[in-house]
Amino acid sequence: MSAEPSPSELLDRVEQLSTRLEELDDPEAQALAQELLAAVIAMYGDGLRRIVEAISEARDAGAAILDRLAQDGAVSSLLLIHDLYPVPLEQRVLEALDTVRPYMESHGGNVELLGLDDGVARLALRGSCNGCAASRATLELAIKQALEEHAPDLAGLEVQGVTEPAPAGNGHGGGFELPMVHSDGLPMADEPPARWIPLDAVGLEPGELRAVVVEGAPLVLANVDGALLAYRDACAACGEPLRDGSLQARMLRCHSCGAEFDLRHAGRAGGGEPLQLTPVPLLEAGGVRVAV
Asked: Which of 35, 113, 146, 264 is most buried per CB count within 10 Å?
């Protein structure tokens, strides 16, 4: 007996059939098939709405059931399609930002939701993260992924404090592409997407460093007062590896040249030097992952 297809496999199948439908040469057959599809979706949507209404009548117990259903990826997508998701969009956006806030704070910044207009979230960067070298990666990878996971029905994202085009790819699967624009309304430029790679950081204690290689990229992980941070394993002053450096509080000292970098502030050099390490976005929610 063959295994049941996964939700992602079913989604892929739907997309394949939809593409074939659009390629039909017979306009009448194409229109009829699309009408049939819309009718089936409406029929199942009406049934799903009645199920949700019946569950909601159970009050607290019903709310707990709906919350559990909303955590299921396959079910939540159906609830979103039919506008039945039990958690308001704004609340889900705020929850998404909460998951990336520790990463933002590790680079001396923060992110704030200014408002939601027609499904477009308006965000603002705060603190030293605004304009730093890590801002673009933070926006595109950390914030965007969190929003994809918590609010896939979001129509777009407008960010204040972004002054340069940032990559607009989705490296996390699922087919969701969140449009991002500058605060002046200009769309972001397209660049090859990064991918989130799971990473084993078990046993890395506060004050310790660990050298790892992810997708061929040498990285150095640091545990700074319980917060995990990742950087490219290359000193911004001499280019030598940082893996043999010493970590004191939040300052990483290069073993080769003695240059010091503040890991809590995006790897900026100490002493006012115009040097900075290359930060690598890292998320701990749902397991440690880095974007390369």
From this structure: 146
CA distance 105 to 101: 6
Q: Which of 218, 217, 265, 216 is nearest to 241 (CA)?
A: 218
- Per-residue pLDDT of 154-190, as tens digits, reads 888 887 754 333 333 333 333 334 444 434 333 343 4
Q: Are 262 and 256 a contacting pair, CB within 8 Å?
A: no
Taking the domains of the chain in order of start, what are their residue ranges?
7-81, 89-182, 196-291
Which alpha helices (H) appear in the chain, and where do they start and end? 7-22, 27-56, 60-70, 73-81, 89-106, 135-137, 144-150
Nearest to 185 by CA among 140, 125, 122, 137: 122
Name the CATH superfamily housing domain 196-291: Rieske [2Fe-2S] iron-sulphur domain (2.102.10.10)
Residue 36, token pair as written in the block: 């049939």
First to last CA, the chain: 39
